[in-house]
Amino acid sequence: MKIFGKGLFLGDSQMLTDSNTQSKPDRSEILRQLLIALACFGATTGAGAADQCYRTIPIDENMRPLPIKPMCSMVEANLNEFCNSPPPLCEMKVAPKFSKHIVLPKWTPVDLKGSLSLVEATMKAPSGSASIADTFWNEVRSDLETAFQEKRLSVSSSHLDLFQLGAAIDVYKIDPGDCERNNSETLQSHDPETWNGEYELTKVTVYPAPKEADRLRSAYTYSGVSVPGNVVQINGKSYIYNMGSRTPPDGISETEHTFVLSEQVSDGGSKIISFNPVCEISYKARITSRRQK
User: Fold this and answer.
1) Fewer beta carbons within 10 angstroms: which end of the chain, N or C?
2) Strands 60-61 and 64-65, sheet pairing
3) Is residue 236 left, alpha or beta, with left meaning phi > 0 and alpha meaning psi from -120 to 50?
4) pLDDT of 290 above 80
5) In this predicted model, what pLDDT tens digit does every residue of 2-33 receive, in sequence order?
6) Alpha-carbon distance 162 to 125, whole Å?
7) Angle, to 10 degrees, between the axis of helix 130-149 and the axis of helix 117-124?
8) Is residue 289 part of a domain?
9) How far apart are CA 139 and CA 134, in angstroms?
């Protein structure tokens, strides 16, 4: 399994426990997702299959490939609606035909009032340990101060069930505003060959608001974890997505590009909420004889 980028861990483990968060599978929901998957499968096979640039690949668990979830087939089909555009390095798009199932949350800009106080409090809060929080903040502070001074840094708020605990919480999205700049060659190009180049992972990260982090820590065993990526809601559930590239170490093979969708949920009887990749979708831009303009 390949996850591009490095998670920002504020504790010794990734856990958030609750004894009542696991619900039994809903048969009607399973059937509904299977029907969606069948429809998406039909859209990505047959005469048009060669035109697709995204392809879901099985996630390996202990050297064993897991079955591809119906949701992943739907996300793949949605991404393939945009093969004539650069890959979603900073923010994904949703085709109208999938808008009932795939939703980008609404975010409200937050006035920082000329200070990084809210950003610092938000990024420190999940830790619960002053020393760990200070160490982490000192590692990221310089880049954030530069982004703030250059008026690139933005913070926005939303209310959503980030950890799939059954209740929405206040969250902040902290965006240093450098994804478009760092990937400008790819995003501004009309040449698919350029889209197959190297990418830099987005540094956008979504955190629970400080008051929510405090509440979670008092109600659960919560060490706090943040993973670079944006949020998308699929069938009402929140997921983190990001897209990156990796050049194989042999220096010969082609650069690999992957769109990864992950969740932070309870994994059953262990009462632990862990960060799990659920979809891995490979990408390769279509190269045709006639360049797109």
Assistant:
1) C
2) antiparallel
3) left
4) no
5) 444 433 334 333 333 333 334 444 555 544 45
6) 16
7) 140
8) no
9) 9
pLDDT of residue 12: 34
How would residue 283 be classed by pLDDT, with cut points 50, 70 and 90? very high
In a domain, 290, yes or no: no
Q: In 10 A of CB 140, how many CB atoms?
A: 17
pLDDT in the model for residue 211: 93
Is residue 1 situated within a structural domain? Answer: no
d(CA 75, CA 80): 9
DSSP string, the chain: ----S--EE-SSS--B--TT---PPPHHHHHHHHHHHHHHHHHTSGGGGGG--EEEEPPEETTEEPPPPHHHHHHHHHHGGGTTS---SS-----GGGTTTEEPPP-EE---TT-SHHHHHHHHTTT--HHHHHHHHHHHHHHHHHHHHTT--EEEEEEE-TT-SSS-EEEEEEE-S-HHHHTHHHHT---HHHHTS-------EEEE-HHHHHHHHHHS-B--EE-BSEEEEETTEEEEEEEEEE--TTSSSPPEEEEEEEEEEE-STT--EEEEEEEEEEE-----SS---
What is the mean predicted confidence (pLDDT) over 125-150? 92
Domains identified in the chain, total number: 1
pTM exceeds 0.90, yes or no: no
User: Can you give the residue range of the structural domain that contains 82?
Assistant: 8-283
Start-to-end CA distance of the chain, whole Å, equals 35
| Residue 222 binned pLDDT confidence (cut-offs 50, 70, 90) | low
pLDDT band at 270 (very low <50, low <70, confident <90, very high): low
pLDDT tens readout for residues 38-89:
444 444 443 355 579 999 999 887 778 889 999 999 999 999 999 999 999 9
Residue 108 CA to chain centroid, in angstroms?
A: 19
**Is the distance from CB of 31 to CB of 38 less than 8 angstroms?**
no
